[in-house]
Amino acid sequence: MSRLLDETRAVLDHAIRVFAxxxxxxxxxxxxxxxxxxxxxxxxxxxxxxGKSTLLNALVGEQIAPTGVGECTRVTTHYADxxxxxxxxxxxxxxxxxxxxxxxxxxxxxxxxIETERLDLARVAALHVxxxxxxxxEVTLIDTPGVDSAVSRSVWGSxxxxxEDVIDCVVHLVRHLHEPxxxxxxxxxxxxxxxxxAAGTLVVxxxxxxxxxxxxxxxxxxxxxxxxxxTDPALRxxxxxxxxxxxxxxxxxxxxxxxEFTALRTLARLDRAELEAQLLTADRFVAASGVLPSGTRxxxxxxxxxxxxxxxxxxxxxxxxxxxxxxxxxxRRSGLDDLRDILATRFLARxxxxxxxxxxxxxERFLARARSGFPTAGVxxxxxxxVPRAAASRPPDAPALAALAEAVERVRSGAHDIxxxxxxxxxxxxxxxxxxxxxxxVTEEAERxxxxxxxxxxxxxxxxxxTGASELRAVALAALGRWRGHxxxxxxxxDTAEVAQVVVRSLEGVLAELPRLVGVG
Amino acid sequence: xxxxxxxxxxxxxxxxxxxLAVRAAAAYGRPDLAADLxxxxxxxxxxxxxxxxxxxxxxxxSALVSELAGTPVCPVHDDVTTRLPTVxxxxxxxxxxxxxxxxxxxxxTGGEVRRRVGSADLSTAVSGRDGxxxxxxxxxxxxxxxxxxxxxVDTPGEGGPRSxxxxxxxxxxxxxxxxxxxxxxxxxxxxxxxxxxxAADRQCPTVVVALTKTDLHPRWREVRDLDRRHLHAHDLDRxxxxxxxATLAAHARRLAERDDPSSRxxxxxxxxxxxxxxxxxxxxxxxxxxxxxxxLDQVTDAVAEFSAALEAxxxxxxxxxxxxxxxxxxxxxxxxxxxxxERSARWQQTLADxxxxxxxxxxxxxxxxxxxxxxxxxESLDAADPASTWDTFAPWLTEEIAEAVTTTxxxxxxxxxxxxERVADHFAISGGEVRSKLPGSGxxxxxxxxxxxxxxxEQTMPGGMVVRAELPDVPGIDVPDLEKIGWxxxxxxxxxGSYGGVLMVGMVTTLSGLALINPxxxxxxxxxxxxxxxxxxxxxxxxxxxxxxxxxxxHGDEVLHLAGKRSxxxxxxxxRTLRDHFTAQAESLARSVAExxxxxxxxxxxxxxxxxxxxxxxRAELARVELLAERVRACRAGFVAVLSEGxxxxxxxxxxxxxxxxxxxxxxx
Lengths: 521, 669
Prior knowledge:
Oligomer: heterodimer
Distance between the termini of chain A: 21 Å
Strand order of the largest sheet of chain A: 4-3-7-2-8-1-9-10-11
Strand order of the largest sheet of chain B: 4-3-5-2-6-1-7-8-9
CATH architecture of the largest domain in chain A: 3-Layer(aba) Sandwich
Number of domains of chain A: 3
Helix content of chain A: 40-55%
CATH topology of the largest domain in chain A: Rossmann fold
Strand content of chain B: 5-15%
Number of helices of chain B: 17
Radius of gyration of chain A: 25 Å
Largest interface: A-B, 38 and 38 residues
Strand content of chain A: 5-15%
């Protein structure tokens, strides 16, 4: 895999040489080069109060992103692993006198406090939070403001995008999926997701615990909804798959405290009918007299939600007996584990591919602009600058550009993984049409073989992970024969034939790796 | 708000006296008055104040409508959402009907298909799962909030002003008496929701925010305060935020079914009764009071008229000498009535002139507004390339034109209402004179002018007829043929240009011994070719602009044509309604005068032996009529009190004032 990164690095070096006269291009390309091999950049997007920050906390397992009743995230915030906590601030345009470059990293009751009062939010481009955490080692999480906020503007809406805004994958949180969300997916599908594509987008039905008024089976009902979305033709072009998560419950499960466990156990010991009466509404639960003071009760609701308290007390009553077991069970039921699996198999397993792909795309964009005669500034966003720089950048000459384009193309076609991603994205929009076959099934098989569910051989072939090499080989050979047939089918349209050829190549790759596995085992 | 209070508006009493008056009119041989009064009684039962319940998807609109109605009428689901608007109104017994367009279906009348369905079919149809082509569903219920004359409309989720749903929902605002914007307590108001609220506030007298799902979110009070802050920031302080919990209300309903004594407190806690009271007070009561007043005024007039004959008879029996004076009065009254019926009567003049003025004013207003939109559109087309901006331009234009048409219609509505008021005044002056000459009348009966229009597009005319302005469907603009010069096209154009260049320079250079195709001629060809392409591109852009502008103008004409027809129809409707109403009034007055004359004459000829007994009977009848009149007056006073309370300018409480003050605000503004 790292061969791909090495080649990409070489192309980027080449590009930096070609565009040496253009400081903006050099800046953007250097940033791209520096992050190759680093953590995957995953953005959390969605409407206001969809639970982006809560999910981020759940993924990290610590309360580092501020969450609360009102709108919390007003600025795009990057959370990355670092040896010591630090909050950096970058601005649109130049930093002015008195603009702080850093914010103090304060802790309050185990959570990080980001004090944005002193900042002029209209000019802040992004916050960069460095936080020592093993869960941020492989991914950098990017929290974004809600798309339909009444007060702040979202990064997605603005045309300007700085080099550090490069995003490899998007987790899009929705509370329910209807026209506005699809419209949003569509609009950013064109702008940001140019380098993300459907293959790099995951739609998550968040706040699953509130479906149907927080009934005890709310998450299960939400999972059914997500299953329906998975086959929704309106959604198909925009994302790789969908899942559900009860963000608040997930966050709490990852950060369960001893006092909370004790309080819940006290509640679980109450008479069942009495507790149910108290849990009818949030207000009643807080105001109920008896075992716990109302402050504790409100705190419990803030952390668990009404559904969480219902679920936790019923689990405790059914015999879950210690804090760790409760946390594990809550985590499982919240859907967080599924989400992490999906992130790991679909995104993290292909980190190099996603990164190389977006780096190559950046080079291609600069190439296209240079060829059409536009100044390269404004490619990835025209950042207002007091110094005129149009005169400084002289477009590179044509032979150099041609050589660079050739280099990009060489890496691209050599890296089958990138081709696979592109084909996957295309398949989401245009399902295969094979004469005489159910196209949905064939498309599904093609997507699986192209590594949609994960790049490992067993995942591609749809077999259990512990399947023996000989069986894998047999299944792969059968599939290969079938897809060779599709590729050579004279009745198939050119698109289908092309996809089939890519599938054939993926299968050949799988087969090529198999004997070696046998040798090792 | 205590319902038992006798001083307050008593709708039941109003209905009772109206029914009594209908019977009395029939008994005294005045079927014309009885028919009039029956119409008034019907309108009294259903003032039909429309309350639109709107909001984003999955905020709990259907659940709220169900709880307001008092029975689960709208299906509530985890995932599937309302696709059809559901209209919940008053009816004699529970019933559900699906309404669709198209004339060839079963039972199709006037291009409308109606089908009675059970509740299961209703919920599949409303959630759009039966694939039927229905436009909306209607549910009739005998009790609950709808029994007080409110019509609740559950709408599909609103997806912003650009979506088809959003446009359909917004189109309903001008015709609604109140809009309830539903937002759940999980988050503060979003930008699209605030835009929706602003649109509602501009076009509808009463707007309320219902903060739903307060049972699920412990911090709903903070969300409510945040919402109030947003409303304040957008200058929407008049909008009340009412927290409700449909889940709790449903629980209370189940408790009540089991006769659990705690159901009342649970119901109070859910906040739904508070919202229902607010709607009743701000929407149903004023609308109902106006209807009730109009009906009671009619009853008063009718009572005075049929008592006139009795009174004339009494005078004739009691005091034969006074008959001569009365006869003189009566004949004067007869002349006056004849004048009223004349086409040259003052009210007729006022009506005819007023409508003529209105037609020209409204036509001019519409033209002017559309002209402005078209001009702005042309300017924006001049500034950009229509081929690339058309996709955003077309929705913008449609929206602007729809806005212009709506504004004109709202204005037209106000003007027609004022005209109706003037005509009523003029009629009342002459009619009052006639009535004062009728025997037994205690002087001129003050007619209350109709109240202010209850919704911009719907007015109750004097006499209780409701005239509705139907907004025309503004069609979308046709996509013009925007010619673009593609690569292949450009190549051909370029070749054409370069051909001339090659020939021209080539011919000259052949003189100096070079071939026709030589470096100079090719160079000239390239130069001229590229210039031709540039010129052609420029020309194509101009052609595109001209095409687009022509399309905009055509569209403007089309809308003007449609809307103009609608506005003229509306005015003609108003004119006809008013003329018919007042002519009927004049005729019934004439009949009353005639009856009084006959009664007086008959009294003269009665034998002296039966005179005493007849006098006793007549006196008893008169006492009964007087009792009825007394009841009507008492009942009327209650409604007048409500209306004058409501029409007081609301106390403009500053930020820190009591919340209840703001809640008590009425739709007077």
